[in-house]
Each structure stands twice: as structure tokens, then as C-alpha cells.
Write a structure and sequence with these properties.
alpha+beta; four-stranded mixed β-sheet; two-stranded antiparallel ribbon; about 40% helix
């Protein structure tokens, strides 16, 4: 993914993602990690190789300071994902909801494996994860998660940011607009944002991005179908909800539109 966007066939991208829902995607045979919290994206599965480290400090970049996906840095893609996501909500909020839009705070990167990591309420932020914390209204991400995912493809970073931002949006809505399946609704909102940003002209989908998105949704899925509000849902459910938002926009993610 990249900024700015240049015209391509948006409908074809939707069709490609929908096709992946039916046919599966690369990486689907890898066991998904266990979900750690209801507003968090789980980290890499146990036994999965860590993202490549550099010879100049182990920061997940190449020796020339670039990332593992086409020479892009993970930090640069995070900044771009934050900008694209916030711009979408800032632009479209008045068309969708009453009241003003205020973005969540960005706590940003943390290292959950070190003492003194940030807390949400009284609990430390989970290791190898990404979260929206209602107590403090902030979004944060463990860089180990971002580096690991970025090594699979830069679309991973955009998905994680848009998903956690979806939880921040849920926290701003009337209770009747928040679906019981909060995690799946956040996936739907993420799809609406990323494909909506492409329509707006603030984001481009590059070759392979739809496959990367489906791969990320599969890697971050639960082992069993959605049964509890703390679950993220299985791979097919996550791709299905993301695709719904991508195809039909934010309003299709609201409870009265979710079939």
C-alpha cells in the first residue's frame, strides 16, 4: 500500500478480496495465534520466525534502513496508515454520525516484553499485540507485532491500525450502533476505511495487497468460529466482515445492517 493513490479498478480489488474468501489465501495453513484480549490483535504464533533484523541494531529494517516489503520501512507505513485512517474518519464522520469527530490519542509504539510497559487501567499492555484502550482513549502497538507482520507484507500494518481505530470509533457511538461481535465489527470498519480511502484518493492498493490483507486476517484469526465477545472470529468470518465493509461501506457494519 502507498500514499498517494492513483486511479485503478477499485471494483476489481473488491472482487479479488471476495474471491480470496472463497478460495483461501497464502499462509492459511499456519496455525493462528491465540487471542489475548477483546480489543487487541494477537502477536505471531509460537514457533514462528521473528521478522528479519538488521546488522545495525535489530530494529526490523534492512541494513540500509528500509523495511522487508519492497524497501519500505515499517515506521513509515505505520505513519501512513495512521494518516490515512484518521483522514477517512475526519472526512466522513459528518456524513455518517451526529456530533463531532475527535480522534483517539496515539500512544504509539511500545515494547510489551520490557518492565515498565504502558498500562490500560491497571493492566500492562499485552506483549506482541496492538490495542485500543478505552481508559485513556488511546491506540498503541507493540513494534514486535508490527515488524513481524510487516515482513509478511505492508498491508498488515494498515489493517492493524484501521482495526484498532475501529474500536475507538465504537467507543464514540451510541450503544445501539455497536454490534455484540465487536471484533468482527472492527474488521468491517477497517475494510470500509481502507477501501473507502482508495475511493477518496488517499490510498493506493498495490499488486498483492488484497492477498496480504486476507493473509493477515487469517493469521490473526481464532482457531474456532466466533462464539464469545472476546473472540476475533475464525478466518472466514474475519475476511467476510472485512469484505462487507470494503464492498458496502461503514453503514453496512452497523447492527441493523449485519445479517
Amino acid at each position: 500500500m502507498a500514499v498517494p493513490w492513483y486511479p485503478r479498478s477499485w471494483a476489481a480489488l473488491i472482487a479479488a478480496l471476495t474471491l480470496l474468501l472463497v478460495t483461501g489465501c497464502a499462509g492459511g495453513d499456519e496455525p493462528p495465534p491465540t487471542v489475548e484480549s477483546s480489543s487487541a490483535a494477537p502477536g505471531p504464533p509460537s514457533g514462528t520466525p521473528a521478522p528479519p533484523t538488521s546488522a545495525t541494531g535489530g530494529d526490523g529494517t534492512g541494513g540500509d534502513g528500509t523495511g522487508g516489503d519492497g524497501g519500505k520501512s515499517v515506521e513509515g507505513d505505520i505513519d501512513a496508515a495512521v494518516s490515512v485512517t484518521n483522514t477517512y474518519w475526519q472526512t466522513h464522520w459528518p456524513q455518517l454520525f451526529t456530533g463531532g469527530y475527535n480522534p483517539p490519542r496515539l500512544l504509539g509504539a511500545y515494547d510489551g516484553g520490557t518492565p515498565g510497559s504502558p498500562v490500560c487501567g491497571s493492566e500492562p499492555l499485552p506483549d506482541d499485540n496492538a490495542v485500543y484502550c478505552p481508559d485513556g482513549d488511546y491506540i498503541a502497538w507493540d513494534m514486535d507485532l508490527m515488524r513481524w507482520g510487516h515482513a509478511r507484507g505492508d498491508a498488515w500494518v494498515y489493517l492493524v491500525i484501521a482495526h484498532e481505530w475501529g474500536h475507538a470509533v465504537q467507543n464514540r457511538l451510541d450503544a445501539g450502533l455497536v454490534d455484540l461481535a465487536r471484533e468482527l465489527q472492527a474488521d468491517c470498519l477497517a475494510g470500509a476505511v481502507l477501501f473507502g480511502a482508495a475511493q477518496d484518493g488517499t490510498l493506493t492498493f498495490e499488486e498483492g495487497d488484497t492477498e496480504e490483507l486476507a493473509d493477515a486476517l487469517t493469521a490473526l484469526a481464532d482457531r474456532t468460529p466466533w462464539t464469545d465477545i472476546a473472540d476475533h472470529g475464525d478466518a472466514s468470518q474475519r475476511v467476510s466482515y472485512f469484505s462487507r465493509g470494503a464492498r458496502s461501506g461503514v453503514k453496512s457494519c452497523l447492527p441493523n445492517a449485519i445479517q
